[in-house]
Design the sequence.
């Protein structure tokens, strides 16, 4: 089984979000970049397929050379090869179209991406990729088993879950549950050394025209100070009369 | 050219999240000087969608649509949009709509911006304000594709009141069966879901153990609320992952969010930012959550929560 894991290079979840250049650009000052958490759950599950079922795991990202340390980390954890598509990740559709080309050229059976990235929260690339390639698609996937060309996926729905039977090729929008938090791997020294000699292909292609371009950013207005109360009666009264939520 | 809203239904009833979306769609249609068509997949004739702003109803009928599948639903909605020449298509932020929206975007070669928080900032050029960085910021994005697909954040616009009547037409799309076959569904029908809840009661490690969660469940029952938890609580296995609220868990956009024994890590706060009113109950007056809250009580959950349950019962009895 050939697996492609799509990875976003995103600010660590503890990052302070600020903007520069007149609020038109994300301020990278002091920001640590990581593998997008939703992607990391999928990557870790794909390594299980590698170790238990002999799958080959490639990772891919779309973006500049600054994304390469994130790809190297994926290689250090156990992925076999990495691909960086050297175009700017301007919008979701541009990224999905670039990835669709990688998927078609690489003959992948299974594509795992995160349900959404923690920067733009678009949640659109996996579904777009499925539609562009004609692959089946399961989003918000919390469990995945593959046997031959048959997959069984569990999808989180509002208020529960459903089990889906599907034939490969398949695109997964993954999240926590594909593996547990405790299953995530930290690269060890041997992995880091091996990652240096694993292939990292830089793929040039012409990008599709962007049709959604962010013009500017805004931070929310500072919040008014909390109203502290001493008794439950006061709280209920405020929630009823002032906030009008009960 | 009209605006098309996809109004989700659950067992024949148009969902609340769709009522809000219809009003939002009417707002955009008015801005553009056009009309609003609401696509439904159930008989909505008795549900007076005109009161939320619907002008036309497109009743999409096909036997394949009797059960939800993202690919068939997306194909049906895309075909419906093409049939009326819609150039703006709107979806909600429910799990199902977020599942199918990217497929509609490709089918219509439309730019897609989810998490919209208000009406377009301008329509020429077409600019949408939407939340990014898990509600830590907002962006203004210019959409330049001929057809535009927008997802509305839950509880960001609210349902508005309109008068009028609707004109209903039927539409039969051309569909093949889904690539996905649902073999089992496990859904608690007697519990309020985090996605639908107007009030969410959430607790963290301050509750000390899963055996104390009856307090949270009792409080949620009195309020008709959904229960949720912090990331450590789900990682410890005290509560299921599906209750984990935060940056890597579920977002909450309820009217009222009550956080009990949750200190308020930045990742948790990001997930609950779009809730309207936040109440914090915590023993530690320095807990970061107090800075993000509207109301707070510094005190022990084991002391405060039972009082809150009793007093709310009395309040509910008086205000029923």
Sequence:
């Amino acid at each position: 089984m050939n697996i492609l894991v799509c990875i976003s290079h995103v600010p660590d979840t503890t990052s302070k979000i600020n903007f520069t250049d007149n609020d038109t650009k994300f301020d990278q000052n002091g920001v640590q970049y990581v593998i997008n958490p939703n992607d990391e759950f999928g990557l870790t599950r794909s390594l299980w397929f590698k170790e238990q079922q002999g799958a080959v795991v490639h990772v891919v990202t779309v973006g500049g050379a600054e994304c390469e340390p994130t790809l190297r980390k994926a290689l250090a954890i156990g992925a076999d090869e990495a691909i960086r598509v050297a175009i700017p990740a301007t919008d979701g559709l541009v990224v999905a179209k670039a990835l669709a080309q990688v998927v078609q050229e690489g003959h992948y059976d299974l594509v795992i991406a995160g349900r959404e990235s923690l920067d733009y929260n678009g949640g659109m690339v996996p579904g777009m990729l499925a539609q562009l390639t004609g692959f089946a698609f399961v989003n918000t996937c919390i469990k995945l088993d593959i046997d031959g060309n048959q997959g069984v996926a569990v999808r989180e729905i509002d208020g529960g879950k459903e089990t889906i039977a599907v034939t490969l090729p398949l695109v997964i929008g993954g999240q926590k549950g594909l593996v547990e938090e405790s299953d995530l791997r930290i690269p060890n020294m041997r992995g880091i050394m091996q990652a240096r000699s694993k292939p990292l292909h830089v793929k040039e292609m012409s990008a599709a025209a962007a049709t959604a371009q962010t013009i500017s950013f805004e931070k929310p207005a500072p919040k008014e100070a909390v109203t502290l109360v001493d008794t439950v009666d006061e709280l209920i009264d405020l929630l009823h009369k002032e906030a009008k939520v009960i | 050219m009209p605006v098309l809203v996809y109004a989700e239904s659950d067992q024949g009833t148009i969902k609340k999240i769709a009522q809000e979306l219809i009003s939002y769609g009417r707002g955009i249609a008015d801005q553009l000087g056009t009309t609003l068509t609401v696509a439904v997949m159930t008989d909505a004739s008795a549900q007076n969608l005109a009161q939320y702003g619907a002008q036309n109803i497109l009743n999409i009928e096909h036997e394949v649509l009797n059960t939800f599948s993202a690919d068939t639903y997306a194909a049906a909605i895309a075909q419906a949009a093409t049939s009326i020449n819609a150039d703006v298509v709107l979806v909600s932020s429910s799990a199902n709509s977020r599942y199918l929206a990217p497929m509609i975007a490709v089918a219509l070669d439309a730019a897609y911006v989810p998490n919209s928080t208000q009406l377009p900032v301008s329509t020429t050029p077409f600019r949408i304000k939407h939340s990014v960085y898990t509600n830590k910021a907002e962006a203004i994005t210019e959409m330049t594709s001929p057809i535009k697909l927008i997802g509305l954040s839950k509880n960001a616009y609210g349902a508005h009141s309109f008068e009028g009547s609707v004109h209903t037409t039927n539409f039969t799309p051309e569909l093949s069966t889904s690539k996905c076959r649902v073999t089992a569904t496990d859904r608690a029908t007697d519990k309020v879901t985090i996605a639908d809840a107007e009030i969410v009661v959430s607790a963290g490690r301050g509750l000390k153990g899963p055996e104390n969660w009856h307090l949270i469940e009792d409080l949620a029952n009195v309020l008709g609320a959904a229960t949720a938890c912090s990331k450590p609580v789900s990682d410890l296995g005290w509560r299921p992952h599906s209750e984990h609220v935060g940056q890597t868990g579920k977002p909450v956009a309820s009217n009222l969010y009550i956080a009990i024994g949750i200190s308020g890590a930045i990742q948790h706060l990001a997930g609950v930012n779009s809730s309207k009113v936040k109440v914090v109950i915590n023993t530690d007056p320095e807990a970061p959550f107090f800075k993000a809250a509207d109301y707070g009580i510094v005190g022990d959950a084991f002391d405060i929560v039972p009082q809150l349950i009793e007093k709310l019962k009395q309040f509910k009895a008086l205000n029923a």
